[in-house]
Write a structure and sequence with these properties.
Layout (H helix, E strand, L loop, with lengths): L3 E9 L9 E5 L2 E7 L5 E5 L14 E3 L2 E3 L6 E3 L15 E2 L1 E4 L2 E8 L1
Antiparallel strand pairs: 1-10, 2-3, 3-4, 4-8, 5-6, 6-7, 9-10
The protein binds FE2/S2 (inorganic) cluster.
């Protein structure tokens, strides 16, 4: 199967508030964008892996992690893994920053 990688501009860096999630839609994906205190930007699927999961864009950010707003699961914004004692994986998307423009790289089927 052949997939193409698309590069889609999703936000402007100067408009992204620090540590506050921003919900965006790209293709079929709901994505939460976060600007960390170290200046990096992360993109993660905007859905908690919890069975009754909420949206991660409303979560609290601390360092490289977001805490789910409903059940307080701790999720890595680097690779999407849910931290112990819970388990799970949230899809993450690679980000590119060019000047003030933020792009997401994503596989299109
Ligand atoms: S709603 Fe996010 S971990 Fe539960």
């Amino acid at each position: 199967m052949k997939t193409t990688i698309a590069r889609i501009q999703v936000a402007e860096y100067s408009q992204l508030p620090e540590r506050m999630g921003q919900a965006i839609t790209v293709g079929q994906w709901e994505i939460a964008l976060f600007r960390l205190t170290n200046g990096e930007v992360r993109a993660i699927e905007n859905r908690s892996p919890h069975p009754k999961g909420g949206v991660l864009s409303e979560g609290l950010v601390s360092g490289e992690f977001v805490y789910c707003p409903l059940y307080d699961w701790k999720i890595s914004l680097r690779d999407g893994t849910v931290q112990a004692p819970h388990k799970g994986l949230v899809k993450t998307f690679p980000i590119e920053i060019e000047g003030d423009r933020i792009f997401i790289r994503m596989e299109m089927a």
